[in-house]
Design goal:
1225 residues; alpha+beta; nine-stranded antiparallel β-sheet; five-stranded antiparallel β-sheet; 46 strands; disordered N terminus; beta-glucosidase activity; 6-hairpin_glycosidase_sf; 6hp_glycosidase-like_sf; NLGase; GH116_N
Length: 1225
């Protein structure tokens, strides 16, 4: 096994051994193996690749179309997923370990200590550091010696900017030559070895909650900075550590105005400041919390607010610095003396927390700081919002920042113990190269800093998709518009009016109000009074309860509906801050005045396909809410086509809307009108990967009894349904007969279930397929607060949904051809998230979107999503709904995506042994394979490429049969056959095996040249090139425990050829594996991608070599990525590993998903344990298998011509899948 010359960086080369010994006992010392830098090391600028003149000529038309598309998107207020013309801050080699867990936004941190690369808003990355966000130290010794400095080396060049002039008054005295940074993700150590005080040793340990197989803590938006201070001098010292933070989410957001800060105290002595940030462009607000822990040894003081502008009369950054420098602590009155005022536009505010300790000679003490942020909603550009995963545990009121900061400080040692238990077996394995042991973990930075979003399943849809949009349009709507918005509803109909849910029946009204971000709600007023003062509800609450309302509370944070005619305002706390309340539930008796108001309810009638709109926080509730007991169903009937009128039945506690068949709702009152099976059919509920993997119908029910919630989880949705009262007498015989008929229909057409969503569909005029998504039903209890209700909505084993970007420059969620490589990391560490991603693509595969799309390479028009084609990505501005944000090529014609889907599904099934997952995805697997079969034009069993870059190498043209796509197809056939056998579909398995043997013979005959497989079967100048990635399909056979595609001699010969040419002939193997190499040893310069070294492909190649018994060559191959990207002699791509680089080290696409494939190497090393009892080997003898059984009808249905959008055609295609799946039944 080889090792690099500078492979091991001993900690003693960066930190004196005496300091290491002093810090060793409590994990404050840097680890033996880590990525290291001195703080005074210059962070050189990175150089991006350039296309050659010949490449530019080839792409000039694409460039013009792409530029026009980018401008068109900008005119709509959107960004393009790919924008090569964007030139912002020039990146540098300065990145370190990011802070925070997965999926709740992330903040990068440079190895010199600056906070940068802000990704708190979906798809937005602000690279520049916010210089006010710093740790600083102030030291005072007995003899009068004092030291003060920001803990940052030198003076950053950004200090010269106008907005940072106030910070120039701070002391930037540290040089950094005796300070160093050490990183093993998700932890990092910064050691100040005698800086700024030569007799003081300081260690800062940064810990984020990234814990494999832990689906709770790993999603938390928090981080801890644990400081260990050792006094090595002969005199006592008083040390104050300062943590300052600007009210900003990066960029120039601090100048937008509307922000404010406030002091807080939590349990266990946790004290700090909340920084409430009003985001721009209607994004949900965000609150930061910075805190430290008061102990017997640590005294914490705070400065809630100081100005970075320093206007006369304001407490400025200079004032703050001088006070802490002079006194070591802030004035005790600071927390009360600063009036909480909102920042003005053009002005920025910040806050600071100081922790002071006194140390005798040789004494050591610890100070713990935490950083947390709370932004429960994540909103995408087209208006759809979801709740983040951590809200399952901390609520969605927007008031969780203090608790997050508190729990981080009290729990971080448990995090750290779990991290050590995970990492130590690898870090201490001396049989592995040292560079590999820590680089394996450091490449995981992308699961935090890759724009990741982790949503909570139930709240994602139950409280967002079924809700009305934020109705900012009501403030400015014309009278005519408002007349159009008026409609009557029948008694019992459930409507959710912008966070206000009503159900009206003959006995009572139940209202659920979420007054989040609302200034006021006024009855009988067309306009919301935005200028009104916010006052407590205590008086109104007491007054209403005197009328006999049992459910009313006098708690000022109780936002129960008091009277329909009352004005409702947000209360103020004692310090004048507006509360952000949780959901509250209030039952109003029908005898109350609140239920006898007359009139109608104003609401917005809109097509399903319209996008939602969001308001400013002060105007998000409709102002004129009038409700009466109406029995007339005429208006309700008008919502549906005549032939699909839903059956409406009533019970004592809820309304049941039961829509039969595949109804197509043309127009509906936006609200909670949805359909579902009634109680009694719960046991018949089955998940099928059909158009949207859902049920025939959904129900929203209001239950007044405290019955247990019975959560139901689907592949795409986990339902929060209400347990139906067992003694309900309102369901008549007709409905019981309808239910029995539904069960018969379900058995007959189990794969033709259509899913409905009350926020989105495509208008059905008889010639369009209605696309709708799943909807969760929600129980609302009259006796519970929102947090209690929501806590019951989700089953324990639901982990939500997960998104991450292809790259920070390629802004598309879960790009699937790249996830093929990166997925080994998720599967190894968070397998249930990996299954969720696969289920999302399984659902999308069986969907169709007829929206016209222009593909930029050739200016051809097509549709956004073709039935049966695995999507390229899950979208950009409306993920899960509008998939395929990528529009360079028509990816429905790509030859790798479907094969990669099948291979990943089978591998994940084998590794997890999740039979439910296999059954749910099996119809999509069959559909994906049948769709690909149409590309076998000569019917030799092998698919052909179409003479354009129809795969992940999207500038590298392929002609005829290709080694890459053909190999993936062979592997997919074998995986499909094995999966069919394991699911007891023996005839289908025989069909796939027959085709596999047919295709294998054609593949070897057309591509094998005696040493390796040619790039393709064409006659172009690069057809015999050596492609580094040609055995990607074989790699999945190894990882899935299947029989190799080819004889071992051919595999070994190919890998040796790649190692000799693609690896060792490029700078002696120090750069990784180049994608294409001619057999004469010259780089294939057919296009920019053929001449690039792709980091993720190199790692996957190395994993293949490990499986093939070429371990030494494998580590030497992968070490080229470490040498170029991570080592001190390299180009500085640490914690921002790009997609690839050229032979001169110039990068393309920094911070990219594919390098996560380094975990394929670990899977290969652990393969015996990983696949224990899971291997499923098969012999392949052609005489055992019959010709293809299910392919002809399925292939015909999914032929090259796009299917007619009529529903019956769609169902015909799905029935083919059903026939294929259930042929044995």
């Amino acid at each position: 096994m080889t090792s690099s010359k500078k492979m091991l960086w001993p900690a003693s080369d960066y930190v004196s051994q005496s300091t290491i010994d002093l810090l060793e006992s409590d994990q404050a010392a840097p680890p033996q193996l880590a990525w290291r830098r001195r703080l005074n090391r210059h962070a050189n600028h990175l150089t991006e690749f350039n296309v050659t003149f010949r490449e530019a000529l080839k792409m000039v038309k694409l460039g013009v179309r792409l530029w026009a598309y980018i401008q068109a998107e900008k005119s709509q207020g959107r960004t393009s997923p790919i924008d090569p013309f964007r030139r912002e801050l020039r990146p540098s080699a300065c990145q370190g370990v990011p802070v925070g867990g997965m999926g709740s936004g992330s903040i990068g941190r440079g190895y010199r200590g600056e906070f940068r690369r802000w990704q708190l808003i979906p798809g937005v990355c602000e690279e520049a550091p916010v210089l006010a966000n710093q740790f600083s130290v102030f030291i005072s010794r007995d003899q009068g010696t004092k030291y003060s400095s920001v803990l940052y080396p030198g003076q950053p060049k950004e200090l010269g900017a106008i907005e940072n002039l106030a910070l120039s008054s701070w002391d930037w005295n540290m040089e950094g030559q005796h300070s160093s940074y050490h990183a093993v993700f998700p932890r990092a150590w910064t050691i100040y070895d005698g800086e700024p005080d030569p007799e003081l040793k300081i260690s800062c340990r940064q810990i984020s909650p990234f814990i494999p197989h832990n689906y709770r803590e790993s999603c938390l938006p928090s981080c801890v900075f644990s400081y260990t201070i050792v006094n090595t001098g002969e005199s006592s010292a008083t040390v104050s550590l300062l943590f300052s933070w600007m009210n900003s989410v990066g960029g120039v957001s601090h100048f937008s105005g509307g922000h404010f800060n406030e002091y807080f105290e939590e349990d266990n002595g946790v004290t700090g400041v909340l920084l409430h940030h009003k985001t721009a462009k209607s994004h949900p607000p965000l609150t930061f919390a910075i805190a430290a822990q008061n102990t017997s040894d640590v005294y914490v003081s705070v400065c809630p607010c100081f100005s970075l502008v320093g206007n006369e009369g304001e407490f400025s950054a200079r004032d703050m610095w001088n006070e802490i420098k002079e006194n070591g602590v802030f004035n005790k009155d600071h927390k009360n003396s600063f009036p909480i005022s909102v920042s003005r536009s053009g002005h920025s505010i910040a806050s600071a927390v100081a922790a002071q300790v006194s140390l005798q000679p040789s004494e050591k003490k610890t100070v713990n700081f935490s950083l947390a942020w709370d932004s429960p909603k994540v909103k995408f550009l087209k208006g759809r919002s979801y709740y983040r995963r951590y809200t399952k545990f901390y609520g969605f009121s927007g008031k969780a920042a203090t608790r997050l900061a508190h729990d981080a400080i009290t729990d971080f040692q448990k995090w750290e113990d779990a991290i050590l238990k995970w990492q130590d077996p690898i870090l201490t394995n001396e049989f592995l190269p040292e560079w590999y042991r820590f680089t394996l973990f450091n490449e995981l930075y992308y699961l935090v800093a890759g724009g990741t979003i982790w949503t909570d399943t139930e709240r994602r849809e139950a409280f967002e998709k079924v809700r009305l949009t934020d109705y900012s349009m009501y403030n400015g709507a014309s009278n005519n518009d408002k007349e159009d918005q008026t409609s009557e509803i029948p008694s019992g109909t459930v409507l959710e009016l912008d966070n206000v849910s009503w159900t009206n029946d003959s006995s009572e009204v139940v209202a659920v109000i979420s007054c989040e971000n609302v200034t006021s709600l006024q009855h009988n007023e067309d306009q919301i009074d935005e200028k009104s003062e916010r006052t407590p509800l205590q008086d109104k609450g007491n007054e209403n309860c005197e009328k006999g309302n049992e459910a009313c509370r006098t708690d000022p944070e109780d936002f129960s509906l008091l009277n329909a005619s009352d004005d409702i305002y947000l209360p103020q706390s004692e310090n004048g801050n507006t509360h952000t309340p949780d959901l509250r539930v209030c039952k109003l008796s029908s005898s109350d005045d609140a239920c006898t108001v007359s009139g109608k309810i104003r609401m917005d009638r809109r097509k399903f396909s319209n996008n939602t709109r969001d308001s400013e926080p002060c105007s998000s509730l409709m102002s004129n809410l009038l409700m009466s007991n109406l029995d007339d169903q005429s208006t309700f009937r008008n919502m549906f086509p005549l032939q699909q009128m839903p059956h409406v039945s009533y019970s004592s506690d809820c309304l049941i809307l039961d829509v039969k068949g595949e109804s197509h709702l043309k127009e509906v009152v936006l609200g909670s009108i949805v359909v579902n099976k009634v109680e009694g059919q719960e046991d018949e509920r089955r998940t099928h990967s059909t158009v949207k993997d859902s049920e025939d119908s959904e129900v929203i029910r209001v239950h007044e009894q405290e019955n247990e919630v019975e959560d139901q989880e689907d592949e795409r949705q986990e339902y929060c349904t209400v347990e139906e009262s067992e003694d309900s007498e309102a369901i008549g015989a007709r409905e019981q007969e309808d239910k029995r008929q539904d069960q018969v229909d379900e058995r007959q057409e189990s794969s033709t279930i259509v899913e409905y969503e009350a926020n989105e569909a495509i208008e059905d005029n008889g010639n369009e397929v209605q696309e709708v998504r799943g909807q969760e039903s929600c129980r609302v209890s009259k006796d519970r607060g929102a947090n209690e209700v929501i806590g019951d909505l989700e089953e324990e084993d639901s982990v939500g949904h997960f998104l991450y970007l292809e790259g920070l420059e390629y802004v598309m969620w879960c790009t699937y051809d790249v996830h093929f490589y990166a997925s080994f990391a998720l599967l190894s560490l968070f397998p249930r998230l990996e299954l969720c991603v696969q289920q999302d693509f399984s659902t999308a595969t069986l969907s169709q979107n007829m929206e016209k799309t222009k593909f930029l390479t050739d200016a051809d028009w097509g549709i956004r999503k073709v039935l049966g084609a695995v999507p390229h990505d899950l979208g950009m501005h409306d993920p899960w709904i509008e998939v395929n944000a990528y529009n360079i090529h028509d990816t429905s014609k790509w030859k790798d995506l479907n094969c990669k889907f099948v291979l990943q599904v089978y591998r994940d099934f084998v590794v997890t042994q999740d039979m439910d997952f296999a059954n749910k995805t099996w119809p999509s697997v069959c559909t994906a394979m049948a769709y690909m079969d149409k590309f076998d034009k000569d019917r030799d069993g092998l698919i052909e490429n179409d003479g354009f870059p129809d795969q992940t190498y999207d500038t590298w043209t392929v002609h005829g049969v290709s080694a890459y796509c053909g190999g993936l197809w062979l592997a997919a056939l074998q995986a499909s056959a094995s999966m069919a056998e394991l699911l007891h579909h023996k005839d289908i398995a025989k069909s796939f095996r027959f085709k596999f043997n047919q295709a294998k013979e054609a593949y070897e005959r057309k591509l094998w040249n005696g040493t390796y497989f040619n790039y393709d079967s064409g006659v172009s100048s690069n057809s015999n090139s050596i492609q580094a990635d040609q055995l990607a399909g074989q790699m999945y056979m190894y990882a899935s425990g299947l029989t190799p595609l080819f004889e071992s001699e051919k595999i070994t010969s190919t890998l040796r050829k790649i190692f000799e040419y693609n690896v060792m002939k490029v700078n002696g193997g120090k750069y990784g594996a180049i994608n294409g190499m001619h057999p004469d040893g010259k780089v294939d310069e057919t296009c920019m991608q053929s001449r690039e070294i792709w980091t993720g492909v190199t790692y996957l190649l190395a994993a293949t070599m490990i499986y093939a018994g070429m371990k030494e060559a494998a580590f030497q191959t992968a070490e080229g990525i470490f040498h170029t990207g991570w080592s001190e002699e390299g180009f500085g791509y640490s914690f921002q590993t790009p997609e690839g680089w050229t032979v001169n080290g110039h990068y393309r696409s920094l911070a990219y998903m594919r390098p996560l494939s380094i975990w394929a190497m670990q899977v290969a090393l652990d393969s015996q344990d990983l696949l224990h009892n899971a291997r499923c080997k098969h012999t392949a003898h052609s005489h055992l298998f019959a010709p293809a059984v299910g392919f002809p009808p399925k292939t015909e249905a999914l032929g090259e011509d796009v299917p007619s959008p009529a529903t019956e055609i769609l169902h015909s295609c799905l029935r083919c899948t059903h026939d294929c799946v259930h042929r044995e039944v």
